[in-house]
Write a structure and sequence with these properties.
Blueprint (H helix, E strand, L loop, with lengths): L8 E2 L2 E13 L9 E7 L22 E3 H6 L7 E5 L9 H9 L3 E6 L12 E4 L8
Parallel strand pairs: 3-5, 5-6, 6-7
Antiparallel strand pairs: 1-2, 2-3, 2-4
The structure holds iron/sulfur cluster (SF4).
């Protein structure tokens, strides 16, 4: 397993690189058709040729938001938060998932399974292994 990358901090507050966040219906898997609020984090080292979110690969300095900013931006009544990417588990998600959990959200994470996952505050994990994940 790979080491997680180090968070950037802003005024001693942990931040995450958010490429986009939006309300939608889950389009695949067990929760297909269920309303959710998606938070797409930046960064992915796997770089599949067919990736449909290549814009998430590159992290820019101004992508970084504090946990409070991420939560403030949530503009839907959906009770499920899907943290996706990119590869969201390259980050230590606990500072974000802990607060989302306290606020009563159900938390889903979509990952290629490349990094260890802190499961403590996560309700559902969708793993979509990629051949290159394990090279
Ligand atoms: S693992 Fe996912 S985000 Fe990363 S390149 Fe492949 S499809 Fe894109």
């Amino acid at each position: 397993m790979r080491e997680k990358i180090i968070h950037e901090y802003y005024n001693n507050t942990v931040t995450f690189p958010v490429k986009e966040s939006f309300y939608s219906l889950q389009g695949e898997g067990h929760y297909s058709g269920i309303a959710a609020y998606f938070i797409r984090l930046g960064g992915c080292h796997i770089k599949c040729n067919w990736c449909d979110t290549k814009t998430s690969w590159k992290i820019n300095k101004n992508d970084f938001l504090t946990v409070n900013q991420i939560i403030k931006n949530i503009n839907s009544q959906a009770k499920i938060i899907v943290i996706t990417g990119g590869e969201p588990t390259m980050w230590n998600l606990s500072p974000l998932t802990k607060i989302l959990k306290k606020r009563g959200y159900r938390i889903h994470v979509e990952t290629s399974g490349t990094y260890p996952i802190q499961e403590e505050f996560i309700d559902w994990i969708t793993i979509s292994p990629k051949k290159k994940s394990f090279h």
